[in-house]
Amino acid sequence: MTHLERIKIFDTTLRDGEQSPGCSMNLAEKIRLARALEALGVDVIEAGFPIASDGDFAAVKAVAAECREATVAALCRTTEQDILRAWEAVGGAARPRLHTFVATSDIHLEHKLKKSRAEVLKMTRAAVRLARSFTEDVEFSAEDATRSELSYLCEVFAAAVEEGASTLNVPDTVGYTTPTEFRELVSAVRERVVGSREVTISVHCHNDLGLAVANSLAALDAGARQIECTVNGIGERAGNAALEEVVMALRVRSDRLPYACGVRTEAIYPTSQLLSEVIGFGVQPNKAVVGRNAFAHEAGIHQHGVLSNPLCYEIMTPESVGVHANSIVLGKHSGRHALSRRFEELGFTLDAQGLEDAYRDFTKLADRKKNIYDQDLLSLLPARQQRELRQEGGAVELNYAEAVGG
Ligand code: KIV
Ligand code: ZN
């Protein structure tokens, strides 16, 4: 059996996720989500950026008081004021972490920070040293690492390790890198930075080119052992690496990705739903793992295959991520097998001729109607069974209803 090396899942739904337009959460919502994330089994919950606002400060403090198992991280820049405020908020956690960051790319130094490389190096040292005076769990992030000059990036990381950082995070802040390039970058950091083998290497990928998950997974090959991600992939601009995709890739492809994490996958879908409810919007229907269509099969050939053996078209079961809905969607591409199975679920066994007639009428109806509901199917039953239905009172149990707005 392959040995699975443990990696950490660092969830930043409450910080980077919350920074995205329309995703802000109030204190009670953040606590509700923090509980769900802890139950999901993530290793680290980044609860917020305490210096950003009094609301963020209060939320980090409350999440720190709530979580007993997960590490709770608070974000801070490399200034004394930020670090003191972050510690004030997170210090009460059972497992507190200070996460301090500064940009290392020339474009950020010149246009945003207006600092020289030497100044940023000095700020890094001072910040990590100060953070380390409060806790042994200090993460240092080099913002915009993927657009930073490699030798300078390594110099800054080396300084952070020397001052006692226990995690070095390599963010692809603008979602610019590619899997091969990112793997090489993380390898180079591991090879060049003295002491980097004694600390955890983390990655934090944004999804501007749709590569956040692929980049994060590629970094594991190079020695990264923490992935930063968010539920439903929410986050700045196009979002962060989606937690559910990272975790299910590890589970489904453990032959290629021999790493284990602590996430209870059956809690993925309920957590995704909770987040959608809190922020008021869900994921696109075809979103991997948690989208409405992720386990839906409409084409007749697919439906036949799935009904015979789900492995024909499903690489993971819906139950493995906590989805318990009927995955067969009846539409114009559906076949006799799916139709007959649905009639059986509704309590009607059709003989060969009855099924043939019903199928003929069903395809005509499906050409005209986008969604076929159970009520529609009942009208396709052979006359004798329709009579029986009327005699029984004709009641149909409504299991599922959906309204779609244009
Ligand atoms: O994207 C980024 O660089 C960040 C850092 C604060 C880690 O969110
Ligand atoms: Zn980010």
Set out the fold topology.
Blueprint: E1 5-6, E2 8-11, H1 13-17, H2 27-40, E3 44-48, H3 54-66, E4 71-76, H4 80-90, E5 96-103, H5 106-113, H6 117-132, E6 138-143, H7 150-162, E7 167-172, H8 179-192, E8 200-205, H9 212-221, E9 226-229, H10 243-252, E10 259-260, H11 268-279, H12 300-308, H13 336-345, H14 352-368, H15 374-378, H16 383-391
Parallel strand pairs: 1-10, 2-3, 2-9, 3-4, 4-5, 5-6, 6-7, 7-8, 8-9
Helix pairs in contact: 2-3, 2-11, 3-4, 6-7, 7-8, 8-9, 12-13
The structure holds 3-methyl-2-oxobutanoic acid and zinc ion.
3-methyl-2-oxobutanoic acid is lined by residues 16, 101, 141, 143, 169, 171, 173, 204, 206.
CATH homology superfamily name of the largest domain: Aldolase class I
Sum up the overall morphology in one term. Answer: elongated
**If strands are numbered along the chain, what order do they take across the biggest sheet?**
2-3-4-5-6-7-8-9
CATH architecture label of the largest domain: Alpha-Beta Barrel
Q: What's the N-to-C terminus distance?
A: 51 Å
CATH topology of the largest domain: TIM Barrel
The biggest beta sheet, please?
8 strands, parallel, barrel
- Ligand identities: 3-methyl-2-oxobutanoic acid, zinc ion
- Low-confidence runs of at least 5 consecutive residues: 394-406
- Please give the CATH class of the largest domain: Alpha Beta
Residue share in helix: 40-55%
- Quantity of strands, as a count: 10
* Radius of gyration (Å): 26 Å
Query: What's the SSE pattern?
Result: EEHHEHEHEHHEHEHEHEHEHHHHHH
| Beta strand % | 5-15%
Give the helix/strand class.
Answer: alpha/beta
Described by its quaternary structure, the protein is single chain
Count of DSSP H/I helices: 16
Tally of domains: 2
Q: What does the average pLDDT come to?
A: 92
